[in-house]
Known about the structure:
Blueprint: H1 5-21, H2 26-39, E1 44-50, E2 53-60, E3 63-70, H3 78-92, H4 98-110, H5 117-134, H6 139-161, H7 166-187, H8 193-201, H9 207-218, H10 222-252
Antiparallel strand pairs: 1-2, 2-3
Amino acid sequence: MIIHMADVADLVLLAGQLILENGGETFRVEETMIRMALAGGAQTADVFAIPQGIFCTINQGLKTHTRVVRIHHRGFNLAKVLEVNRISRQLSAEILTVETAYEELLKVDRLPRRYPTGIRLLAGASGSAAFSYLLGAHKGSVFVAGVTGLLVMFVMEFLQRKEILNFVSVAIAGAVTALANLAIRQFWPELQFDLAVIGSIMVLAPGLAITTSVRDALFEDLISASIRGVEAFGVALAIASGVGSVLTLYLWIGGNLP
């Protein structure tokens, strides 16, 4: 069967795009694309990936095929990354052909970009409660952190559907959790306010972005590491500004904090 390098180029570009759009590291993108290109029959392959785009060139004899894609939407769905890795391994083991591998990738691309809303809300509530518990909060404050964490996730869902900028959405969500905990504290003074707030905003923390940035740096992908690091810093700053502005205003109007 004749393998067309143009098809191989389309295959590896789609694979890299799926990994990058769903939270994969840039070194993983480059490694997977090169492996799939060689398994598809290319003699050499060169890939350069950053969080905003991918440049790929594959060669066979005197023929060169170049592909470029701009990444507009990025999220975190590691199930898709896992599926792309599975397809890559099966292509390398000759279990799949270039054509069938491309069809499998299209199936992965058609999967929901994000986890179901119910799962995200439940994860936000349980994550917030768990963080406050680990910080030493009593049961009542753990429950409050879970409830306000659920509220934060509702706010984020609403703002993202309205296509509000992520940094603005995070700042608003941070302000909402501070307001909610302040309101609860007015009726329940025994609330461990600081632990409840910290627990509820942890669902906004850019943990995976920080981890990915560090891993990119370790693999000497310094451009990608810097981009992801700045992104993580911006999210952290947005959280602090949202919570801090509400607490500052509360103190300014005469409130007191423990």
